[in-house]
Amino acid sequence: MDTTRSADGTTIAYDRYGSGTPLILVNGALSDRSGSQPLAEALAPDFTVISYDRRGRGDSGDTSPYSVAREIQDLRALIDAVGGSAAVYGHSSGAALTAIAASSLPITSVVLHEPPYGPDDEESQQQSDDDGAVVLRLLREGRRTDAVATFLAMAGMPSDAATEYARTPGMAEVAHTLAYDFAVMDHASKGGVVPISLLEGLQQPTLVVAGSASPPFMVDAARSVAKTVQNGRLVELDGQHHVVPAEVLAPVLRAFLS
Question: What per-residue confidence (pLDDT) applies to 171?
Answer without folding.
Answer: 93
